[in-house]
Prior knowledge:
The complex is a heterodimer of chains A (about 200) and B (about 170). By secondary structure, chain A is of the alpha/beta class.
Amino acid sequence: MIETAEILKVFQQYRGDAIVVPGKGARYWNDISTRPNRDVHLMPVAMGGRASFAFGLALAQPDKKVVLFDTEGDLLMGLGTLSTIAEHQPKNFYHFLLDNECYATTGGQPVPNAKHIAYDVIARGAGYPHAYAYDNLESFAINVERILSQPGPAFVALKIVPEIENEPIGRRKRWTTRTREQVLKDLWQELGITH
Amino acid sequence: MTQSHEALLSPETVLGEMKKNDITHVVSLPDSETNWLYVLMKAEPSLTLVAVSREGLAHSAAAGLFVGGKRPIILIQNTGLMESGDSLRGWGLGLNIPVVLLVGYRGWTRHGVTQDTAAVYTERFLNAFGINYYLVENNGDAPRISMACEEARKTRRPVAVLVGDEYHGFNR
């Protein structure tokens, strides 16, 4: 299993000018990212839609790489989104899955069949042309540049160390550094989008 | 009482409303009313269809499209609308997405007692979320789709259009 922060530090080396949807990786990504105006951290929204959201963003911005750091709990709530993504084959979409095998923010209860699901196999079966799985940092670090340099969509399942939270929500440290409105405003300014 | 065919809502009219409002993407899950519209949309070069497998995913996909600078519309049935409640709350309302929800109003009737619980709960559901809605039954009502698009843009909120034409050939 890999520490989330280590994954993100390695990824940062190859990020380029990609738009990043950091998901729950944001707790570390906010300190690692050097292009915050291209980071789309919008939590909390509604669980189950993060991959669809990032896919929509990729579809709308086909000339820019969109990198998603998803979680297995979120993906399992909307697994059918893999078939939608695969149907459109967005060449600019890179789907990383942070799999800690549990619902960490609710106390660490396991997701269904936590230890025996092969998310890369599911993604490949849904129609992703490239799907990988890594459970150690070395293998990920060796391959991530190649994965990001080839056309997407690509799916990368990563086994991560669970960081279980039992504190009442009101007492938890907030990771957000900007409001949702500010995140969108910064992104739109960065990309030259006017609504 | 019978209605003339001209009085009904044609898929061509709905497509025309989408084009008039510069819709770029239709995020949809097919329902019993929209097959012919689906065929027309597939053939329309200005539109990209995004087929989802559960209606909740439509709200997040549409949010991503809007955030990326596009103008999506969501095309689903009232049954799926109700299934998608938390996504509508978090993505559509939470991110202030100005999207029109074109909702097939399954079970709706002007006559007698409404038997289908899908119809019974539809407007109550929308009211619970504070989402404004327009009923569209025939071509004469079609400008309401443009009104809904304009309202969504002005208010930065989802606005619903209920398509109450399940039994009159919208599906051909």
